[in-house]
Design brief:
Number of domains: 3
Helix content: 10-25%
CATH architecture of the largest domain: 3-Layer(aba) Sandwich
Number of strands: 17
Strand content: 25-35%
Oligomer: single chain
Radius of gyration: 21 Å
Strand order of the largest sheet: 13-12-11-14-15-17-16
CATH superfamily of the largest domain: Vaccinia Virus protein VP39
Length: about 325
């Protein structure tokens, strides 16, 4: 049975394995295998693998002595992992409980199992969960060398955006001033700060900001991270013209905050604008909205147009990296 694996040349294997391990993507239940000069590293979430790596289906052997959920169930359940918590998405309560029991009985490192009990809802973008195993919705998630403590029932967080976050992080230069308008628990600002940036993150969710501050402490960057609970539109007056970089990861309604982003922008600022649009015109609405908000005060140039992931049939989650020069 094939499992998703990153395939690399054997000589690049250890560096690639370390890179995937830092992102929390190595699947522990299968052996890393060498075949015909290539090394195959099993991964937990192929959608989160960096784009420069090749993901293939490969018949990786189950690690000797390891019991996997499929061994118990007789079928491969669909699930994702955040730290030691496993998330399933099952409408049938009996099937959900059966999968949860198999996950706990298996040799996977599982401290709890949650079933999605609602869609993301409300201004704070949280969802309800059914706890199938364990006694908590709190977890520590590791991603590209950073550790993030969070409570899935209290804050929004998606591990599937790890690759996109890392893409942006790699653009950071030491000494930058970066502002995340919808910062959550800090998955942008904390790694920004680790690369030497001074960061401000705002969020209307008080619990998220509490976690952001704790995560800055946990990762040793509290001196370079300021977390502010509140609507960014109310905070912007204190940071007018301050930012070298602005992150706008609120894809359903980021356009409503573009005037604020322009207020935050310094003389030369990169804005990472996230949007959800239909396949027929993925980037046009966002680009037009940015130009309407920033011109003629700024010269606007779009440096990157990129699809982050599929959102729904006929719709994509996209990002525009836009440079504003006064």
């Amino acid at each position: 049975m094939g499992v998703p694996c990153v395939r690399v040349a054997r000589e690049d294997g250890e560096a690639t394995r370390q890179r995937l391990a830092e992102a929390g993507l190595v699947e522990d239940g299968y052996d890393i295998t060498v075949e015909d000069g290539s090394l195959y590293v099993p991964v937990t979430d192929p959608t989160a693998v960096p784009e420069d790596l090749s993901v293939v289906e490969f018949d990786a052997p189950v690690r000797e002595g390891q019991t996997m959920p499929a061994d118990i169930l007789g079928f491969d359940p669909s699930y994702e992992r955040i730290g030691d918590i496993v998330i399933v998405d099952e409408d049938d309560p009996a099937r959900a409980r059966e999968i949860a029991a198999a996950l706990v009985e298996s040799d996977l490192p599982v401290e709890g199992v949650l079933n999605r009990a609602s869609k993301i809802k409300g201004e704070q973008r949280v969802r309800d969960w059914e706890v199938l195993a364990g006694d908590t919705t709190e977890v520590v998630h590791r991603e590209y060398g950073c550790a993030f403590e969070l409570d899935l029932a209290e804050v929004y967080f998606s591990p599937r955006l790890a690759t996109e976050r890392h893409r942006v992080v790699e653009q950071i230069s030491e000494g930058e001033q970066a502002f995340d308008m919808f910062a959550g628990v800090g998955p942008f600002v904390v790694p920004f700060a680790k690369r030497g940036a001074t960061c401000v993150g705002t969020d209307i969710n008080e619990t998220a900001i509490e976690y952001l501050r704790r995560n800055a402490e946990r990762n040793g960057v509290a001196d370079r991270v300021t977390g502010i609970c509140g609507d960014v539109r109310d905070v912007a007056a204190d940071y007018e013209g301050w930012a070298d970089r602005v992150v706008m990861n609120l894809p359903h309604s980021a356009d409503e905050f573009l005037d604020t982003a322009v207020r935050l922008a310094g003389d030369d600022c990169v804005v990472h604008y996230y949007d959800i649009q239909p396949d027929e015109d993925l980037y046009g609405p966002g680009e037009r909205a940015i130009r309407a908000a920033a011109e003629p005060e700024y010269e606007v140039s779009v440096e990157t147009r990129r699809t982050v992931r599929s959102y729904a049939p006929g719709e994509q989650n996209v990002v525009l990296d836009v440079r504003l020069r006064r």
